[in-house]
Amino acid sequence: MDRSGGPAGRSGSGGGRSDRYQASEFPREPPRPGLARKPNEPSIPEGVDTRELHRAVRAELRGLPKDLAEIVASHLVVAGQLIEEDPELAYAHAEAARRRAARLPIVREAAAETAYAAGHYDVALSEFRALRRMTGTHDYLPVMADCERALGRPQAALKLSRESERYGLDPSQRIEMVIVEAGARRDLGQDPEALRLLQAAIESYNASGSDARMPKARLRYAYADALATQGREAEARSWFAAAAKLDHEAETDAQARVDAIDGLMIDFDDSEPDDDLDLGLDAADGYDLSPGDSNERHSAEPAADDDR
Q: Side-chain half-sphere of 137: how many Cα atoms within 13 Å?
């Protein structure tokens, strides 16, 4: 044995102290919890700017470690960008954020909304329930009821509607609940009751201003859709037109429904020669396509001041 206490001949083997401890003996420190990316997790695109998040959202994320907060924020930004064009991928990004920060309401809300947009109504319902418990707000009841209806449980939707009456939802949320309740009634074959609910809501909702436009538009659209289902096309046309007049950003397809009823949807055959595409527009001279100007306007159609 040599003076170092090691076996004789080690010093002549060509290995010094540095060779005794190979790099493999010092594995890299594993990433801190939440930082490692799962194999099935979407990657964050380059150039994501977390400053796009609302100030209140960024404030909520400050409770996380800085590097973890940055990852969560990036996933939330991408989820928000994709929710309309690719809701499934948006949901995957929201889930990636949820896996890291499930205790934050803003993260659970992103998971709920993207799951809803992607059609994962069971997941959305679970997340909205969790949000209700976490925040104590009852504003999620209408969308929870809509999830129940989408899952084929109209009676459960009606139960949530009845429950909401105890909590005094704000007017816009109450309108959403009426629309869901009417839909559940239609699911159960109770069409006259659905129409009654919607008509009563239209008559009683007298809010004005920009914030009232979409609730009014959505009510009129729902009423028109219920009429169309019963084959009452002329009345439905008037109410779709009224909805389109209020829906400045085309959040609904009300104008398309008007056009469909008017027979304006034209399928072009690409095999036809171009000169066969003369539609004879002169014949349409004087035809007013503005919403709500049909000669078949229903007598119960809302007054002109509804678009204020």
A: 12
